[in-house]
Amino acid sequence: MIILSGPSGVGKSTVIRQLLAVKEFPLRLSVSATTREKRPGEQDGREYHFWKRERFQEAIAAGAFLEWAEVFGKYYGTLRSEVEPYREQGIGVILDIDVQGAAQVRQKCPDAVSIFLRASSLDTEEELKTLEARLRKRGTESEEAMQRRLQGARAELAHAGEYDYPVINDNLERAVAEVNAIISIHARGTGMLDELKEEAIINKVGGRFKLSTLIQKRMVALNTGAKALVEVKGGDRLAIVVQEILQDKIYLDASDQVKTRGTSAGDAARRAMLTDISDSGGGDD
Ligand code: 5GP
């Protein structure tokens, strides 16, 4: 299960649409139920199940929801029937839900991978400016509704740190590739890391949890301007991080801080002392 959150206007729907078109693995978007009004172009049962408040409340009472929350004064919820039958068939399910819903799902499904999509940067004020511009351009909201969404965005951004991966959608193609790569690592347990000798990389870093921490922290660093230490065709940030690990360019120290290794003589000497996390027999280059 993949949780995708992010403030209003960040382009979640577009990223998801493109992601589903990639079809690298069986993946389905859960269609939520909501009590908000349909926007022009939306269809009942496609974007959402558009329900009356009473129906939504009955479904809550009947335990039909995996999670539900009130967002912008309206109910939104993930129906179990949109998730469970597909997961049983080995189909990955992606949830486009808010931070409250994500917290509920994380508790119920600890194996869920969570991704927080941001518009432009990891700086909240800068991010809010970009979001406002995008919402104005979309033009689906009244001024009042837009201000409410921007306030909501500020509140959502405060929870970004609870997610496994931050992805910046400043370039759609790259954002889709990153989300795709994250899903392929976690949801299938094979994919990219399989090709690159998954066991080797996990052992090198010191376990699955450390690998996840290292990837996550290094992606944040790359997203905030750190220079890649390897060259990867296409520039997909996750592929860069995986290559940096495989080429011994980055590692986690004892307090889970990301450290980089250059290629200078001093670095080579330091690296020689770090035999516990380097490949057997691969000490010098
Ligand atoms: P919108 O009205 O723009 O379609 O969605 C508003 C917000 O509600 C988005 O942040 C979206 O992720 C969130 N949302 C949509 N469906 C659900 C759901 O089923 N559960 C929760 N908790 N949030 C949802």
From the structure above, extract its key features.
globular, 12 helices, 285 residues, five-stranded parallel beta sheet, four-stranded mixed beta sheet, alpha/beta, binds guanosine-5'-monophosphate
Number of helices: 12
What order do the strands of the largest sheet run in, or round the barrel if closed? 2-7-1-8-9
Please state the CA-atom Rg, rounded to the nearest Å. 21 Å
Q: What is the 3D shape? A: globular
Task: Give average pLDDT, whole number.
Answer: 84
Give the strand content.
15-25%
**Helical percent range?**
40-55%
N/C terminus separation = 41 Å
How would you describe this protein?
The protein has 285 residues and is an alpha/beta fold. The protein has a domain at 175-260. Helices cover 45% and strands 16% of the residues. The strands form three sheets. The chain has a five-stranded parallel beta sheet, sandwiched between helices. Strands 4-3-6-5 form a four-stranded mixed beta sheet. Strand 10 and strand 11 (258-260) form a beta hairpin. Helix 1 (12-22) crosses helix 7, helix 9 crosses helix 10 and helix 10 (208-223) crosses helix 11 (237-246). Residues 264-285 have low confidence and may be disordered. Bound molecules: guanosine-5'-monophosphate. The site of guanosine-5'-monophosphate has 15 residues, from strand 5, strand 6 and helix 4.
